[in-house]
């Protein structure tokens, strides 16, 4: 009985320490470098998509600690995404036209290839885990004037579609 009690106490202590430490930085993510690369997007961008002309504007706010992306499409509601560091993590919150706000955490960044991947962390105003929501996002920085964005929309717990946007800087 005493051994079981000690094992249970050790398990609780280990779990409490892991919880107190908070989320760790994913392997392969230099959040500071990835955020610096995102900050270089400040300006205006456009892409021709099957949904019409897509327009992005990026603006720094909060003394440069957050990057706000304003996204518009022809004849569709606008959306916003905010990118921000959180300690050793890089997060985004996407304010989606479907009415929820998924948060994603950077899981991979490679400065040489220009690839930055975000994966779903949680969401606010999500009716259920099966409700449609943006789940993952991948960005490829081709050069200072070309950006490819891929957003994955999940529904009923699985990938429903991937939206692919090849943006060109216009200002």
What does this protein structure show overall?
- With 171 residues, the protein is an alpha+beta fold.
- It has one domain (27-169): Beta Barrel (Lipocalin).
- Helices cover 17% and strands 56% of the residues.
- It contains two helices and ten strands, in the order H-H-E-E-E-E-E-E-E-E-E-E.
- The protein has helices at 2-21, 31-39; strands at residues 43-49, 52-61, 66-73, 76-86, 89-95, 101-110, 115-124, 133-143, 146-155, 158-169.
- It has a ten-stranded antiparallel β-barrel with strand order 1-2-3-4-5-6-7-8-9-10.
- The protein is globular, with a radius of gyration of 19 Å.
- The termini are far apart.
Tag the structure with descriptive keywords.
171 residues, alpha+beta, Lipocalin, 10-stranded antiparallel β-barrel, 10 strands, 17% helix, 56% strand, globular, disordered N terminus
Report how far the terminal alpha carbons are from each other.
71 Å
Please list the strands of the largest sheet in the order they lie side by side. 1-2-3-4-5-6-7-8-9-10
CATH superfamily: Calycin beta-barrel core domain
What's the number of structural domains? 1
Instruction: Based on Cα principal axes, name the global outline.
Output: globular
Number of helices: 2
- CATH-defined fold name: Lipocalin
The CATH class name reads Mainly Beta
Strand content: over 45%
- State Rg: 19 Å
**What are the low-pLDDT stretches, counting only 5+ consecutive residues below 50?**
1-23
Spell the H/E element sequence: HHEEEEEEEEEE
Structural class: alpha+beta
What CATH architecture would you give? Answer: Beta Barrel
Q: What's the average pLDDT? A: 88
How many β-strand runs? Answer: 10
Assembly of the depicted chains: single chain
Q: Specify the helix fraction band.
A: 10-25%
Question: Quick one: biggest sheet?
Answer: 10 strands, antiparallel, barrel
